[in-house]
Write a structure and sequence with these properties.
The complex is a heterodimer of chains A (246) and B (249).
Chain A (H helix, E strand, L loop, with lengths): L1 E10 L2 E11 L4 E5 L6 H9 L6 E6 L8 E4 L3 H4 L6 H9 L6 H14 L15 H14 L4 E5 L7 H18 L2 E6 L2 H7 L2 E5 L6 E6 L14 H15 L4
Parallel strand pairs in A: 3-7, 3-8, 5-6, 6-7
Antiparallel strand pairs in A: 1-2, 1-4, 8-9
Chain B lengths: L1 H22 L11 H13 L3 H31 L2 H16 L6 H8 L3 H25 L3 H9 L4 H38 L6 H10 L3 H29 L6
Helix pairs in contact in B: 2-10, 3-6, 3-8, 3-9, 4-6, 5-6, 6-8, 8-9, 8-10, 9-10
Classes of the chains: A alpha/beta (246), B mainly alpha (249).
Protein backbone atom coordinates (compact mmCIF):
# COMPACT_ATOMS: atom_id res chain seq x y z
CA UNK A 1 0.00 0.00 0.00
CA UNK A 2 2.88 2.34 0.85
CA UNK A 3 6.17 1.84 -0.92
CA UNK A 4 9.29 3.85 -0.12
CA UNK A 5 12.18 3.46 -2.52
CA UNK A 6 15.72 4.74 -1.85
CA UNK A 7 14.62 7.74 0.20
CA UNK A 8 17.48 10.12 0.99
CA UNK A 9 17.45 13.37 2.90
CA UNK A 10 20.16 15.91 3.64
CA UNK A 11 19.99 18.74 6.18
CA UNK A 12 22.52 21.54 5.60
CA UNK A 13 24.70 19.15 3.61
CA UNK A 14 24.56 16.46 6.31
CA UNK A 15 23.08 13.07 5.40
CA UNK A 16 20.09 12.31 7.65
CA UNK A 17 18.21 9.52 5.86
CA UNK A 18 20.38 7.12 3.88
CA UNK A 19 18.68 5.21 1.10
CA UNK A 20 15.60 4.09 3.06
CA UNK A 21 13.42 1.50 1.35
CA UNK A 22 10.48 -0.43 2.79
CA UNK A 23 6.86 -1.22 2.08
CA UNK A 24 3.66 -1.48 4.12
CA UNK A 25 0.75 -3.74 3.19
CA UNK A 26 -2.88 -2.66 3.45
CA UNK A 27 -4.31 -2.91 7.03
CA UNK A 28 -0.86 -3.40 8.49
CA UNK A 29 0.63 -1.63 11.51
CA UNK A 30 4.34 -1.00 11.07
CA UNK A 31 6.61 0.35 13.77
CA UNK A 32 9.93 2.06 13.20
CA UNK A 33 12.27 1.83 16.16
CA UNK A 34 15.25 4.07 16.53
CA UNK A 35 17.11 6.27 18.97
CA UNK A 36 16.12 9.90 19.60
CA UNK A 37 17.26 12.26 16.88
CA UNK A 38 17.89 9.55 14.30
CA UNK A 39 15.51 11.13 11.78
CA UNK A 40 12.29 9.21 12.44
CA UNK A 41 10.14 12.34 12.61
CA UNK A 42 11.75 13.70 9.42
CA UNK A 43 10.83 10.48 7.65
CA UNK A 44 7.20 10.79 8.76
CA UNK A 45 7.08 14.44 7.67
CA UNK A 46 8.43 13.50 4.24
CA UNK A 47 5.77 10.79 3.84
CA UNK A 48 3.09 13.30 4.95
CA UNK A 49 4.35 15.78 2.36
CA UNK A 50 5.39 18.33 4.98
CA UNK A 51 9.09 18.05 4.20
CA UNK A 52 10.95 17.68 0.91
CA UNK A 53 13.12 14.69 0.11
CA UNK A 54 16.40 14.89 -1.80
CA UNK A 55 16.17 11.53 -3.56
CA UNK A 56 13.85 8.56 -3.73
CA UNK A 57 10.24 7.75 -4.31
CA UNK A 58 7.13 7.52 -2.14
CA UNK A 59 4.18 5.63 -3.61
CA UNK A 60 0.82 5.53 -1.84
CA UNK A 61 -1.25 3.04 -3.83
CA UNK A 62 -4.94 2.14 -4.16
CA UNK A 63 -6.37 5.05 -2.21
CA UNK A 64 -9.66 6.74 -2.97
CA UNK A 65 -9.61 8.70 0.26
CA UNK A 66 -9.68 12.49 0.04
CA UNK A 67 -7.13 12.83 2.84
CA UNK A 68 -4.00 10.77 2.32
CA UNK A 69 -2.36 10.87 5.73
CA UNK A 70 -3.53 11.42 9.30
CA UNK A 71 -0.76 12.64 11.57
CA UNK A 72 -0.61 12.20 15.34
CA UNK A 73 2.18 13.90 17.22
CA UNK A 74 3.80 13.24 20.55
CA UNK A 75 2.42 16.47 21.99
CA UNK A 76 -1.29 15.76 22.19
CA UNK A 77 -2.13 19.21 23.58
CA UNK A 78 -0.84 20.85 20.39
CA UNK A 79 -2.76 18.44 18.19
CA UNK A 80 -6.15 19.59 19.48
CA UNK A 81 -7.68 23.03 18.96
CA UNK A 82 -7.99 24.40 22.51
CA UNK A 83 -10.84 26.77 21.61
CA UNK A 84 -13.03 23.84 20.54
CA UNK A 85 -14.60 21.12 22.70
CA UNK A 86 -13.69 17.48 22.08
CA UNK A 87 -16.85 16.97 20.00
CA UNK A 88 -16.11 20.15 18.00
CA UNK A 89 -12.52 19.03 17.39
CA UNK A 90 -13.70 15.70 15.98
CA UNK A 91 -16.50 17.40 14.05
CA UNK A 92 -13.96 19.80 12.49
CA UNK A 93 -12.15 16.79 11.00
CA UNK A 94 -15.43 15.20 9.94
CA UNK A 95 -16.44 18.41 8.16
CA UNK A 96 -13.49 17.96 5.79
CA UNK A 97 -14.82 14.67 4.48
CA UNK A 98 -18.58 14.75 5.17
CA UNK A 99 -20.66 17.69 4.05
CA UNK A 100 -24.12 16.39 5.01
CA UNK A 101 -24.77 17.66 8.55
CA UNK A 102 -27.10 14.81 9.55
CA UNK A 103 -24.63 12.19 8.38
CA UNK A 104 -21.86 14.09 10.14
CA UNK A 105 -23.75 14.12 13.44
CA UNK A 106 -24.38 10.41 13.14
CA UNK A 107 -20.69 9.73 12.48
CA UNK A 108 -19.66 11.98 15.36
CA UNK A 109 -21.89 10.15 17.85
CA UNK A 110 -20.63 6.80 16.59
CA UNK A 111 -16.99 7.84 16.95
CA UNK A 112 -17.55 9.31 20.42
CA UNK A 113 -19.19 6.05 21.54
CA UNK A 114 -16.47 3.87 19.99
CA UNK A 115 -13.73 5.81 21.72
CA UNK A 116 -15.70 6.10 24.99
CA UNK A 117 -15.38 9.87 24.85
CA UNK A 118 -19.13 10.46 24.85
CA UNK A 119 -19.21 11.66 28.45
CA UNK A 120 -16.38 14.10 27.73
CA UNK A 121 -17.77 15.50 24.48
CA UNK A 122 -18.46 18.98 25.87
CA UNK A 123 -15.12 19.28 27.63
CA UNK A 124 -12.24 21.37 26.32
CA UNK A 125 -8.84 19.71 25.76
CA UNK A 126 -7.36 21.39 28.85
CA UNK A 127 -10.06 19.74 30.96
CA UNK A 128 -8.93 16.22 29.97
CA UNK A 129 -6.13 14.01 31.29
CA UNK A 130 -3.15 13.34 28.99
CA UNK A 131 -4.43 9.87 28.07
CA UNK A 132 -7.94 11.14 27.32
CA UNK A 133 -6.58 14.04 25.25
CA UNK A 134 -4.42 11.70 23.15
CA UNK A 135 -7.43 9.37 22.73
CA UNK A 136 -9.34 12.38 21.39
CA UNK A 137 -6.45 13.03 18.98
CA UNK A 138 -6.66 9.43 17.71
CA UNK A 139 -10.44 9.74 17.35
CA UNK A 140 -10.23 12.96 15.37
CA UNK A 141 -7.57 11.42 13.14
CA UNK A 142 -9.85 8.43 12.53
CA UNK A 143 -12.63 10.93 11.68
CA UNK A 144 -10.48 12.16 8.79
CA UNK A 145 -10.60 8.65 7.30
CA UNK A 146 -7.08 8.94 5.92
CA UNK A 147 -5.48 6.27 3.76
CA UNK A 148 -2.55 6.06 6.17
CA UNK A 149 -2.00 6.90 9.83
CA UNK A 150 1.38 8.40 10.66
CA UNK A 151 2.11 8.48 14.39
CA UNK A 152 5.12 10.20 15.88
CA UNK A 153 5.78 8.65 19.31
CA UNK A 154 2.12 9.04 20.25
CA UNK A 155 2.41 7.44 23.72
CA UNK A 156 5.75 8.82 24.86
CA UNK A 157 4.36 11.88 26.68
CA UNK A 158 2.19 9.69 28.92
CA UNK A 159 2.99 7.79 32.12
CA UNK A 160 3.36 3.97 31.88
CA UNK A 161 -0.22 3.06 32.92
CA UNK A 162 -1.89 5.74 30.78
CA UNK A 163 0.31 4.74 27.85
CA UNK A 164 -0.60 1.05 28.16
CA UNK A 165 -4.30 1.80 28.53
CA UNK A 166 -4.24 4.09 25.51
CA UNK A 167 -2.39 1.52 23.39
CA UNK A 168 -5.20 -0.95 24.07
CA UNK A 169 -7.84 1.72 23.35
CA UNK A 170 -6.07 2.53 20.09
CA UNK A 171 -5.99 -1.17 19.11
CA UNK A 172 -9.72 -1.51 19.87
CA UNK A 173 -10.43 1.50 17.66
CA UNK A 174 -8.07 0.22 14.97
CA UNK A 175 -9.82 -3.18 14.91
CA UNK A 176 -13.00 -1.39 13.74
CA UNK A 177 -11.50 0.16 10.59
CA UNK A 178 -8.00 -1.35 10.29
CA UNK A 179 -6.40 1.74 8.79
CA UNK A 180 -2.83 1.14 7.61
CA UNK A 181 -0.52 2.64 10.21
CA UNK A 182 3.13 3.63 10.38
CA UNK A 183 4.39 4.76 13.75
CA UNK A 184 7.77 5.68 15.11
CA UNK A 185 8.86 5.00 18.65
CA UNK A 186 11.78 4.02 20.85
CA UNK A 187 9.69 1.86 23.16
CA UNK A 188 10.16 -1.86 22.40
CA UNK A 189 7.15 -3.10 24.44
CA UNK A 190 4.88 -0.66 22.61
CA UNK A 191 6.29 -1.86 19.29
CA UNK A 192 5.60 -5.54 20.05
CA UNK A 193 2.11 -4.87 21.40
CA UNK A 194 0.96 -2.81 18.42
CA UNK A 195 2.90 -3.68 15.27
CA UNK A 196 2.75 -6.41 12.63
CA UNK A 197 6.16 -5.48 11.33
CA UNK A 198 9.05 -3.79 13.11
CA UNK A 199 11.68 -1.81 11.21
CA UNK A 200 14.84 -1.10 13.18
CA UNK A 201 16.78 2.04 12.32
CA UNK A 202 20.42 2.86 12.92
CA UNK A 203 21.67 6.11 14.40
CA UNK A 204 22.21 9.08 12.10
CA UNK A 205 22.69 8.84 9.13
CA UNK A 206 19.67 6.60 9.41
CA UNK A 207 19.63 3.25 7.62
CA UNK A 208 17.37 0.24 8.02
CA UNK A 209 19.23 -2.36 10.10
CA UNK A 210 16.57 -5.06 10.19
CA UNK A 211 12.92 -5.80 9.55
CA UNK A 212 11.22 -8.20 11.95
CA UNK A 213 7.78 -9.76 11.44
CA UNK A 214 5.55 -9.85 14.54
CA UNK A 215 3.16 -12.82 14.41
CA UNK A 216 1.38 -12.18 17.69
CA UNK A 217 -2.30 -12.97 17.01
CA UNK A 218 -4.95 -10.25 16.75
CA UNK A 219 -6.97 -8.93 18.46
CA UNK A 220 -4.26 -8.39 21.02
CA UNK A 221 -4.65 -8.14 24.78
CA UNK A 222 -2.36 -7.40 27.71
CA UNK A 223 -1.84 -11.16 28.24
CA UNK A 224 0.21 -11.20 25.03
CA UNK A 225 2.78 -8.97 26.67
CA UNK A 226 3.90 -11.74 29.04
CA UNK A 227 4.03 -14.52 26.44
CA UNK A 228 7.11 -16.49 25.40
CA UNK A 229 6.72 -15.15 21.84
CA UNK A 230 6.87 -11.56 23.10
CA UNK A 231 10.02 -12.33 25.09
CA UNK A 232 11.73 -13.82 22.02
CA UNK A 233 10.74 -10.84 19.88
CA UNK A 234 12.09 -8.47 22.49
CA UNK A 235 15.42 -10.31 22.50
CA UNK A 236 15.58 -10.17 18.72
CA UNK A 237 14.90 -6.44 18.66
CA UNK A 238 17.43 -5.80 21.40
CA UNK A 239 19.99 -7.87 19.52
CA UNK A 240 19.73 -5.47 16.61
CA UNK A 241 19.43 -2.26 18.63
CA UNK A 242 22.16 -2.95 21.17
CA UNK A 243 24.35 -5.39 19.26
CA UNK A 244 24.30 -8.15 21.88
CA UNK A 245 21.83 -10.68 23.26
CA UNK A 246 20.53 -9.97 26.77
CA UNK B 1 -16.35 37.99 49.60
CA UNK B 2 -13.37 37.68 51.96
CA UNK B 3 -11.18 39.46 49.40
CA UNK B 4 -13.67 42.34 49.10
CA UNK B 5 -13.76 42.71 52.91
CA UNK B 6 -9.94 42.86 52.99
CA UNK B 7 -9.95 45.57 50.31
CA UNK B 8 -12.60 47.57 52.26
CA UNK B 9 -10.45 47.28 55.40
CA UNK B 10 -7.39 48.58 53.49
CA UNK B 11 -9.51 51.49 52.20
CA UNK B 12 -10.65 52.32 55.76
CA UNK B 13 -7.02 52.23 56.98
CA UNK B 14 -5.90 54.55 54.13
CA UNK B 15 -8.81 56.89 54.97
CA UNK B 16 -7.87 56.83 58.66
CA UNK B 17 -4.16 57.60 58.03
CA UNK B 18 -5.15 60.29 55.55
CA UNK B 19 -7.55 61.87 58.13
CA UNK B 20 -4.76 61.71 60.69
CA UNK B 21 -2.40 63.64 58.41
CA UNK B 22 -5.18 66.13 57.70
CA UNK B 23 -5.86 66.57 61.45
CA UNK B 24 -2.17 67.15 62.18
CA UNK B 25 -2.13 70.01 59.63
CA UNK B 26 1.12 68.70 58.08
CA UNK B 27 -0.13 69.72 54.65
CA UNK B 28 -2.39 72.62 53.76
CA UNK B 29 -6.04 71.54 53.02
CA UNK B 30 -5.44 73.00 49.58
CA UNK B 31 -2.80 70.36 48.91
CA UNK B 32 -4.39 67.48 50.76
CA UNK B 33 -8.11 67.82 51.51
CA UNK B 34 -9.66 65.43 54.03
CA UNK B 35 -11.25 62.14 52.84
CA UNK B 36 -14.64 63.51 53.96
CA UNK B 37 -14.17 66.56 51.71
CA UNK B 38 -13.25 64.34 48.76
CA UNK B 39 -16.26 62.05 49.31
CA UNK B 40 -18.50 65.14 49.43
CA UNK B 41 -16.85 66.46 46.25
CA UNK B 42 -17.30 63.05 44.59
CA UNK B 43 -21.06 63.27 45.17
CA UNK B 44 -21.16 66.91 44.08
CA UNK B 45 -19.33 66.38 40.77
CA UNK B 46 -22.28 64.21 39.76
CA UNK B 47 -25.11 66.20 41.37
CA UNK B 48 -23.93 69.76 40.74
CA UNK B 49 -21.20 69.64 38.11
CA UNK B 50 -22.88 67.06 35.86
CA UNK B 51 -19.63 65.18 35.35
CA UNK B 52 -21.45 62.43 33.46
CA UNK B 53 -21.37 64.78 30.42
CA UNK B 54 -17.55 64.87 30.64
CA UNK B 55 -17.51 61.14 31.27
CA UNK B 56 -19.59 60.59 28.13
CA UNK B 57 -17.14 62.67 26.05
CA UNK B 58 -14.06 60.93 27.46
CA UNK B 59 -15.51 57.44 26.90
CA UNK B 60 -16.63 58.38 23.40
CA UNK B 61 -13.10 59.57 22.49
CA UNK B 62 -11.59 56.47 24.06
CA UNK B 63 -13.80 54.00 22.17
CA UNK B 64 -13.68 55.93 18.88
CA UNK B 65 -9.86 55.99 18.99
CA UNK B 66 -9.67 52.37 20.13
CA UNK B 67 -12.02 51.06 17.42
CA UNK B 68 -10.36 53.05 14.65
CA UNK B 69 -6.81 52.22 15.78
CA UNK B 70 -7.47 48.54 16.42
CA UNK B 71 -9.16 48.04 13.04
CA UNK B 72 -6.35 49.73 11.10
CA UNK B 73 -3.68 48.06 13.29
CA UNK B 74 -5.15 44.60 12.72
CA UNK B 75 -5.33 45.10 8.95
CA UNK B 76 -1.79 46.49 8.71
CA UNK B 77 -0.41 43.88 11.11
CA UNK B 78 -1.84 40.96 9.15
CA UNK B 79 -0.76 42.56 5.87
CA UNK B 80 2.84 43.00 7.04
CA UNK B 81 2.89 39.47 8.45
CA UNK B 82 2.27 38.08 4.97
CA UNK B 83 5.90 38.71 4.06
CA UNK B 84 9.07 38.14 6.07
CA UNK B 85 10.70 40.98 4.13
CA UNK B 86 7.97 43.42 5.21
CA UNK B 87 8.34 42.29 8.85
CA UNK B 88 12.09 42.94 8.65
CA UNK B 89 11.59 46.33 7.01
CA UNK B 90 8.93 47.49 9.46
CA UNK B 91 10.45 46.14 12.69
CA UNK B 92 12.85 49.07 13.19
CA UNK B 93 10.12 51.67 12.51
CA UNK B 94 7.62 49.97 14.76
CA UNK B 95 10.16 49.66 17.57
CA UNK B 96 11.11 53.31 17.11
CA UNK B 97 7.49 54.47 17.11
CA UNK B 98 6.73 52.31 20.14
CA UNK B 99 9.57 53.98 22.03
CA UNK B 100 8.21 57.48 21.39
CA UNK B 101 6.59 59.24 24.34
CA UNK B 102 3.16 59.61 22.73
CA UNK B 103 2.23 62.80 24.58
CA UNK B 104 5.14 64.46 22.76
CA UNK B 105 3.14 63.98 19.56
CA UNK B 106 0.32 66.24 20.81
CA UNK B 107 1.71 69.37 19.05
CA UNK B 108 2.04 67.53 15.73
CA UNK B 109 -1.54 66.24 15.87
CA UNK B 110 -2.76 69.73 16.85
CA UNK B 111 -0.90 71.24 13.88
CA UNK B 112 -2.38 68.77 11.44
CA UNK B 113 -5.89 68.30 12.82
CA UNK B 114 -6.54 71.40 14.94
CA UNK B 115 -7.86 71.39 18.51
CA UNK B 116 -11.16 69.67 17.77
CA UNK B 117 -12.19 66.07 18.24
CA UNK B 118 -10.16 64.82 15.26
CA UNK B 119 -6.74 65.47 16.77
CA UNK B 120 -7.62 63.67 20.04
CA UNK B 121 -9.23 60.65 18.41
CA UNK B 122 -6.47 60.35 15.79
CA UNK B 123 -3.74 60.47 18.45
CA UNK B 124 -5.47 57.71 20.46
CA UNK B 125 -5.96 55.76 17.20
CA UNK B 126 -2.29 56.22 16.29
CA UNK B 127 -1.16 54.74 19.62
CA UNK B 128 -3.58 51.83 19.17
CA UNK B 129 -2.39 51.21 15.58
CA UNK B 130 1.24 50.85 16.70
CA UNK B 131 0.45 48.60 19.67
CA UNK B 132 -1.98 46.43 17.66
CA UNK B 133 0.45 46.02 14.75
CA UNK B 134 3.23 44.92 17.10
CA UNK B 135 0.89 42.48 18.79
CA UNK B 136 -0.35 40.99 15.53
CA UNK B 137 3.18 40.47 14.20
CA UNK B 138 4.33 38.96 17.51
CA UNK B 139 1.26 36.75 17.82
CA UNK B 140 1.73 35.32 14.33
CA UNK B 141 5.37 34.56 15.12
CA UNK B 142 4.21 32.51 18.12
CA UNK B 143 1.64 30.39 16.32
CA UNK B 144 1.89 26.72 17.24
CA UNK B 145 3.69 25.03 14.35
CA UNK B 146 2.35 21.56 15.20
CA UNK B 147 -1.18 22.78 14.53
CA UNK B 148 -0.13 24.35 11.24
CA UNK B 149 1.57 21.10 10.18
CA UNK B 150 -1.50 19.13 11.19
CA UNK B 151 -3.75 21.45 9.20
CA UNK B 152 -1.51 21.13 6.14
CA UNK B 153 -1.52 17.34 6.39
CA UNK B 154 -5.32 17.48 6.58
CA UNK B 155 -5.34 19.23 3.24
CA UNK B 156 -6.51 22.67 4.44
CA UNK B 157 -5.62 25.52 2.08
CA UNK B 158 -3.88 28.76 3.17
CA UNK B 159 -7.16 30.67 3.67
CA UNK B 160 -8.66 27.85 5.74
CA UNK B 161 -5.50 27.60 7.83
CA UNK B 162 -5.60 31.35 8.44
CA UNK B 163 -9.29 31.48 9.34
CA UNK B 164 -9.59 28.25 11.31
CA UNK B 165 -6.20 27.94 13.00
CA UNK B 166 -4.11 31.11 12.91
CA UNK B 167 -6.84 33.66 13.64
CA UNK B 168 -8.35 31.96 16.72
CA UNK B 169 -4.91 31.10 18.04
CA UNK B 170 -3.60 34.64 17.64
CA UNK B 171 -6.56 35.94 19.70
CA UNK B 172 -4.85 34.85 22.90
CA UNK B 173 -1.78 36.99 22.20
CA UNK B 174 -3.82 39.87 20.79
CA UNK B 175 -5.99 39.96 23.86
CA UNK B 176 -3.02 40.56 26.17
CA UNK B 177 -2.15 43.51 23.91
CA UNK B 178 -5.67 44.90 24.09
CA UNK B 179 -5.49 45.05 27.90
CA UNK B 180 -2.22 46.95 27.66
CA UNK B 181 -3.69 49.21 24.99
CA UNK B 182 -6.81 49.96 27.05
CA UNK B 183 -4.70 51.41 29.87
CA UNK B 184 -2.50 53.30 27.41
CA UNK B 185 -5.47 54.77 25.53
CA UNK B 186 -7.13 55.88 28.80
CA UNK B 187 -3.97 57.80 29.76
CA UNK B 188 -3.79 59.41 26.30
CA UNK B 189 -7.48 60.49 26.45
CA UNK B 190 -7.00 62.22 29.80
CA UNK B 191 -3.75 63.92 28.69
CA UNK B 192 -5.29 65.01 25.37
CA UNK B 193 -8.24 66.57 27.19
CA UNK B 194 -5.85 68.40 29.51
CA UNK B 195 -3.71 69.96 26.81
CA UNK B 196 -5.48 69.85 23.45
CA UNK B 197 -8.33 72.23 24.13
CA UNK B 198 -11.84 70.98 24.77
CA UNK B 199 -14.98 72.03 26.58
CA UNK B 200 -15.80 68.60 28.03
CA UNK B 201 -13.83 65.63 29.26
CA UNK B 202 -12.45 64.24 32.51
CA UNK B 203 -8.95 65.53 31.74
CA UNK B 204 -10.33 69.00 31.17
CA UNK B 205 -12.28 68.84 34.45
CA UNK B 206 -9.14 67.83 36.41
CA UNK B 207 -7.19 70.79 34.96
CA UNK B 208 -10.10 73.21 35.57
CA UNK B 209 -10.46 72.16 39.22
CA UNK B 210 -6.70 72.52 39.61
CA UNK B 211 -6.71 76.03 38.12
CA UNK B 212 -9.44 77.26 40.49
CA UNK B 213 -7.83 75.48 43.48
CA UNK B 214 -10.80 73.14 44.01
CA UNK B 215 -8.42 70.38 44.99
CA UNK B 216 -11.09 68.25 46.68
CA UNK B 217 -13.00 68.20 43.36
CA UNK B 218 -9.76 67.56 41.50
CA UNK B 219 -8.98 64.53 43.70
CA UNK B 220 -12.55 63.28 43.31
CA UNK B 221 -12.25 63.46 39.49
CA UNK B 222 -8.86 61.71 39.54
CA UNK B 223 -10.38 58.94 41.67
CA UNK B 224 -13.26 58.72 39.18
CA UNK B 225 -10.81 58.19 36.27
CA UNK B 226 -9.15 55.45 38.31
CA UNK B 227 -12.52 53.80 38.99
CA UNK B 228 -13.39 53.96 35.28
CA UNK B 229 -10.00 52.51 34.27
CA UNK B 230 -10.42 49.73 36.81
CA UNK B 231 -13.92 48.82 35.63
CA UNK B 232 -12.87 48.93 31.96
CA UNK B 233 -10.05 46.54 32.76
CA UNK B 234 -12.26 44.23 34.82
CA UNK B 235 -15.01 44.21 32.16
CA UNK B 236 -12.44 43.32 29.54
CA UNK B 237 -11.06 40.52 31.72
CA UNK B 238 -14.58 39.08 32.07
CA UNK B 239 -15.10 39.29 28.31
CA UNK B 240 -11.67 37.75 27.72
CA UNK B 241 -12.42 34.90 30.13
CA UNK B 242 -15.40 33.93 27.99
CA UNK B 243 -13.86 34.42 24.56
CA UNK B 244 -10.37 32.99 25.07
CA UNK B 245 -11.07 30.68 27.98
CA UNK B 246 -8.22 28.31 27.07
CA UNK B 247 -5.29 30.65 27.75
CA UNK B 248 -3.09 29.82 30.68
CA UNK B 249 -4.78 26.41 31.15
Amino acid sequence: MLKINNLTKYFDGQLILDNISFSIKENEIVAMVGANGCGKTTLLKIIAGLENKNQGEIVLKNTNQKIKTGLVFQNYRDSLLPWKTIAQNIDFCLSLTTKNSLERRHKLNKLLKQSQLHDHRHKYPYELSGGMAQLAVFTKTIALKPALFLFDEPFSALDYNSSLKLQKQFLDLWEKNKTTTLFVTHDIDETIFLADKIIILSNSPTKIIATIENDLPRPRSFSHLGSEQTHKLKQEILLHTTGFLV
Amino acid sequence: MKKILIQINILVIIGFVWSLFFGLHIFSPLLLPSPQMIIKAFVNIFLQDHIYIDLKYSLWRLFAGLSLGTTIGLLLGFLISLSKKLIELSSFWLDFTRSLPYVALIPIFMLFFGIGEKSKIFLIAFVCIVITMLNVIQSLKNINQTRIMMAKSMGLNQTQIFLKIILPESLAYLSAGVKHMLSFATIIVIVCEMFMGTEYGLGKKIINYHLIFSTDYMYATIILTGVIGYFLNKSYQLFEGHIIHWTGK
